[in-house]
Amino acid sequence: MTLTDDRTLHFCIALTLLPGVGDINARKLVAVTGSAEALFTEKRSALLRIPGMNRSILSNITNNREILERASKEVEFIRRFRITPLFYTETGYPERLKQCIDSPVLLFTLGNADLNKPRIVSVVGTRRATEYGKEICQRLISGMAELGVLVVSGLAYGIDTCAHKSALDTGLQTAGVLAHGLDRIYPPLNKQLALRMTEQGGLVTEFLSETNPDRENFPKRNRIIAGLADATIVVEAGVKGGALITADIANSYNRDVFAVPGRIGDPVSEGCNNLIKTNRAALVQSAADISYIMGWDKEKPSQKGVQRSLFIHLEPDQEAVVSILREYGDCSLDKLCIASGLQTSKVASALLNLEFEGLIKCLPGKIYRLV
After folding, report:
1. Predicted TM-score of the model (pTM)
2. Mean of the pLDDT values across residues 323-334?
3. Percent helix, strand and coil across the chain, each rounded to 5?
4. 11 has pLDDT over 50
5. What is the per-residue pLDDT for 330?
6. Whose CB has fewer CB within 10 Å in the chain, the N or C terminal residue?
């Protein structure tokens, strides 16, 4: 399946418009019917046999004129502005995000950001950033320049804006995750910044055009910020706010979370200090701390050839996994299962044994890499 085909894209968009379905149920429906198009073209009697199918959802699928018309309008918008749609079953869909149970089934991107870069960090924080917070943010990102990371944030005022600008100034790609459609930029003052980002990174959203930046969209946006990255870095945050929501989501995804400590009693650092105090984030003072904890400082290309020469006397399942990792590079468990044709339990067992032997390593987001 490819979304370069208008008909396929049309039904994928229509799937996201079905009331009461959501991302998790949408995956189940596609798994049963085979594709988004099949869901809308399947006979009513066959749809009724789908486990969990209720009459409300069935009615929306079969009486779908308004949904399909809205989807058709969105296809025109996407083609006119050369937006790239990514359905969750496509190879270009972000692998890290694919591991998150509530990730969007369909993303829209504008620009040239590589959402599957080997190293991705999210940087979040308060909209009321202090000069101290901005300075630390700049220092952390410039310190990661040699790592070639992709910097993800939410294009909001304060720390988000500082993170994007620092990445651009350092020569790193940066991606902004939006809480609205790609036909507008919020806040409006960041329009020029967003334009620069499309040339050295990009913009990402799950929302269709004509979607306003409503309050309820921001927590949904935050799960994408957390899910795209290996690690989330909180620079400044109060006791409440979007940055802490993003940190909590990242923890729920078993991703690493870092927080910059601040002065005791400082309102804009209280959230960071609480994250550290409650062991929900590692204390970070420099880019070297992040590199060390993530294990990025140990990844030396010159060592790979020595280790790979040790791939002998492997069991058939282990050899299959190693061969796929050699061919495709870093892979998720799902990708290894699909590529090998093996059962999940067999792939998991092979991975465990290979990890014990020191031949592979498990990266954040359950991505596996040859050592």
Report:
1. 0.80
2. 85
3. 50, 15, 35
4. yes
5. 86
6. N
